[in-house]
Amino acid sequence: MKLLLISNSTNAGEPWLEYPMPQIASFLEGVGSVAFVPYAAVTFSYDEYESRLASRLEPLGIRVRSVHRAADPAHMVGRADAVVVGGGNTFALVKKMQEQNLIRVIQRKIRRGTPYVGWSAGSNVCCPTICTTNDMPIVQPQSFKAIGAVKFQINPHYLDSHPDGHAGETREQRILEYIAANPRRYAVGLREGCMLRYEDERLELIGSRPMRIFKKGAEPREVQPGEDLSFLL
Q1: Measured on CA atoms in the order 181, 186, 192, 195, is the torsion positive or negative?
Q2: Cα angle vertex 142, ends 139, 143, to 5°?
Q3: How is residue 134 annotated by DSSP?
Q4: How many beta carbons lie within 10 A of that of residue 134, not counting itself?
Q5: Geometric angle at alpha carbon 97, from 95 and 99, rounded to 5°
Q6: Model pLDDT for residues 159-215, shown as the tens digit of each residue
């Protein structure tokens, strides 16, 4: 498998996709075109999303073809050199992917070695389920099941902070609820500015921040970039 799973598309004060572009360019080296899944977009159009990604990838010689333009989106994905899934609302994304049979097609593509890039919701749908998303369920998918390319759950945009005056649960408390209900599953808090790259049977954390690891029966702990992550596989 070849996966690049990015926490967030944009760091504060930076242009869109600025910080992950060196890794994206390296990861997609030699790829001529990508099938783009824009269905997490809700407050802006799929056309706009496709155009934004094209402005980033086409200078690298990579053509962007969005599945929303295809009469048969699953067929387009099946023929793609690589698959890119953008962020936005995870429930809107997985609902459309399920309706168009893209979950199963992307599963097969990944298993055959096709490169996959996702950020935010696009990273979350690479997990067994979307149960660790931060998003509101603005639409109802057929189920919470996702691609399952990795065996653990990702919480993108993971935050440690608890805002002043907020008496509700922290992100960590929410994830602790998840692992209490799903004791066999690891969950990872992927902080902004970070990503996970899986290639050549090796999972690597890339970025300047550690990743927080959650598992039922163990205290949450931090792993640093460069540390062994084979226990997640």
Answers
A1: negative
A2: 100
A3: -
A4: 15
A5: 70
A6: 987 767 766 788 999 999 999 999 999 999 999 999 999 999 999 999 999 999 999
The DSSP code sequence of 55-83 is: HHHGGGT-EEEEGGG-SSHHHHHHT-S-E
The residues that are catalytic are 120, 135, 157
91 is written with which tokens?
Answer: 């429930």
Distance, in Å, from the CA atom of 64 to the CA atom of 85, rounded to the nearest integer, reads 12
Tell me the average confidence (pLDDT) per consecutive run of 10 residues in the chain, 233 residues long. 97 95 97 98 98 97 97 96 98 98 97 97 98 97 98 96 73 96 98 96 96 97 95 94
Beta strand segments in 72-229, E: 83-85, 116-119, 153-158, 187-191, 195-199, 202-206, 211-214, 221-223
What's the whole-model pTM score? 0.96
DSSP 172: H
CB atoms within 10 A of CB 150: 23
Amino acid letter at 171? R
3-class SS of residue 86: coil
Q: Which residues contact 24 (CB under 8 A, 6 or more apart)?
A: 4, 17, 56, 57, 117
Q: What is the reported pLDDT for 169?
A: 82
What tokens does 55 get? 């402005």
- Provide the pLDDT for residue 160: 85
Q: Which residues of 179-218 are buried (b: 16+ CB within 10 A; e: fewer)?
A: beebeebbbbbbbbbbbbbbeeeebebbbebbbbbbbeee
